[in-house]
Inverse folding.
């Protein structure tokens, strides 16, 4: 009996130590890589939707434009909603001039304390999208309503897309 | 005896509970509600992690509400009951007199200031471009006498005056309130929709032509035609009340022989007409004018006078622009809500000498996208 108890205690202790010692490994993935993965998925969806292969060249998605949040020349009303000091890296993938509500944003915060502030910026962007799309084209508004905004460590993603779950999974997997 | 009546009550109760559920299961799911003009929630995708995160349950609840058997009937019953109990407003829409639905308007906030200064900065950046701003009042102002008792939306004239006072003097402010107000006995606004009619747009065009320095066409230069008399607009969908008469859509066709080459750039569509008949069979009949909203479209006409104008607009412009096609060789129409490229590069590239900003008061007070001009 005594032996059993001591064994149990040893096992518990070992588990406890292992538990404490297990450090959460800090993931460090460039935002650009995550966006590339997301773009590959969008390209696939486009092809499945009948967009010709040759119109998707050099990783450029037809109709989309990519804005690097940290670039000096970057501008636009969406950028004003962010506090640039919160952001280490960030990319906005948006429609150039289309009546589509698709909008994807991936951001890496400078540190975890900034995540909440970035989250509230993304909420403002969501409000803006609500305003524009609740007036017109119910199918595009549906995408906005199904928007997924998610934080994982220092990383945040904002997805307004036909099948946001697909892109969410890519984001989550990229940070594993 | 008492037992027997209890049994009946119990059976009726169970039947009632079951029948609604059975009906919910056997009625097929709908994708879109014409009555409410919105997409209905579909059965959510099922994954264990969505259940633990609560996403599935909340989506499932939306699904059940949206796909409830005979939903349109219940929605209209609710609105009817509210009417009977003297409720005068539903989803921001007042039930006005004589079948008028009117949208509430609140005092604008700092967004209005930003929009004014954005247009000012447009004129600073492009001093050689002649700019005009036309702000159309909404039906809630013109038909304020139709408002229900105690309804008190903010006075749109104050907003219009405020814009005028704060606008850079290089920009021509086009005042259309007076003429619209004087023509209020005519059919110049839809009763069930948030737009003005083509007739309303015509009177505004008459005023604008004085600023543009062109001679406006008179009514006898047009043939008019009613293309639909069963238009139920956006206010109708928001008010959710079935006892409201539909609107009709009137179109002004110039008698002179103007030819058009119309290009929609988002879907690369080219056509030779300003009017898309296909929408007359659909819910969104206002899209008959210029195919509804587009980020960028151009109209080239056979009026060979080398004049080009850019129009930054909301959807009030759609039934207005046809009048301008009689005076310009090229019209470039940009909707800042959807256009994310540089406006300035576009103006330069196409060597455009005039710019018209055309918005209704409600949009101009709250649209966050005019800031893109800064």
């Amino acid at each position: 009996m005594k032996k059993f108890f001591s064994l149990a205690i040893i096992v518990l202790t070992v588990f406890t130590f292992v538990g404490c010692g297990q450090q959460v490994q800090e993931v460090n993935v460039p935002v650009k890589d995550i966006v590339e993965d997301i773009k590959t998925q969008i390209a696939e969806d486009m092809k499945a939707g009948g967009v010709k292969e040759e119109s998707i060249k050099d990783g450029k998605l037809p109709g989309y434009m990519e804005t690097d949040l940290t670039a000096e020349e970057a501008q636009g009303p969406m950028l004003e909603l962010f506090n640039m000091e919160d952001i280490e890296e960030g990319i906005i993938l948006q429609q150039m001039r289309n009546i589509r509500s698709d909008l994807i944003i991936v951001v890496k915060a400078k540190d975890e304390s900034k995540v909440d502030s970035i989250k509230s910026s993304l909420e403002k962007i969501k409000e803006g999208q609500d305003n524009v799309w609740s007036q017109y084209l119910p199918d595009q508004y549906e995408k906005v309503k199904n928007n997924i905004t998610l934080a994982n460590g220092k990383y945040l993603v904002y997805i307004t897309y036909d099948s946001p779950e697909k892109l969410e999974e890519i984001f989550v997997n990229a940070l594993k | 005896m008492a037992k027997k009546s209890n049994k009946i009550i119990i059976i009726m109760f169970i039947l009632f509970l079951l029948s609604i559920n059975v009906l919910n299961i056997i009625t097929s799911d709908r994708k879109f509600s014409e009555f409410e003009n919105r997409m209905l929630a579909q059965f959510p995708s099922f994954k264990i992690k969505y259940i633990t995160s609560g996403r599935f349950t909340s989506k499932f609840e939306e699904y059940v509400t949206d796909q409830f058997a005979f939903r349109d009937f219940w929605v209209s019953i609710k609105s009817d009951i509210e009417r009977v109990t003297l409720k005068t407003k539903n989803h921001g829409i007042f039930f006005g007199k004589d079948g008028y639905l009117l949208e509430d308007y609140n005092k604008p906030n700092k967004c209005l200031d930003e929009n004014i200064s954005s247009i000012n900065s447009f004129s600073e950046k492009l001093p050689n471009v002649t700019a005009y701003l036309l702000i159309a009042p909404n039906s809630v102002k013109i038909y304020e006498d139709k408002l229900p008792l105690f309804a008190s939306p903010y006075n749109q004239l104050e907003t219009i005056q405020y814009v005028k006072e704060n606008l850079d003097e290089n920009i021509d402010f086009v005042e259309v309130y007076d003429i619209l107000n004087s023509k209020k006995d005519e059919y110049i606004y839809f009763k069930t929709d948030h737009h003005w009619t083509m007739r309303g747009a015509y009177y505004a065009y008459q005023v604008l032509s004085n600023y543009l320095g062109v001679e406006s066409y008179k009514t006898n230069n047009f043939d008019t035609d009613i293309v639909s008399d069963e238009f139920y607009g956006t206010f109708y969908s928001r008010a959710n009340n079935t006892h409201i008469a539909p609107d009709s859509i009137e179109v002004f066709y110039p008698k002179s022989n103007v030819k058009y080459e119309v290009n929609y750039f988002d879907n690369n569509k080219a056509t030779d007409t300003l009017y898309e008949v296909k929408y007359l069979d659909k819910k969104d009949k206002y899209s008959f004018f210029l195919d509804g909203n587009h980020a960028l479209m151009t109209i080239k006409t056979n009026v060979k006078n080398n004049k080009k104008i850019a129009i930054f607009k909301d959807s009030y412009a759609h039934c207005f622009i046809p009048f301008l096609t009689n005076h310009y060789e090229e019209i470039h129409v940009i909707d800042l809500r959807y256009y994310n490229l540089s406006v300035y590069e576009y103006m330069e590239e196409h060597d455009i000498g005039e710019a018209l900003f055309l918005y209704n008061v409600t949009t101009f007070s709250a649209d966050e996208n005019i800031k893109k001009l800064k």
Q: What stands out?
A: Residues 13 and 132 of chain B are 67 Å apart (CA to CA). The mean pLDDT of chain B is 93. The longest helix of chain B spans residues 2-26. Residues 2-97 of chain B form one domain.
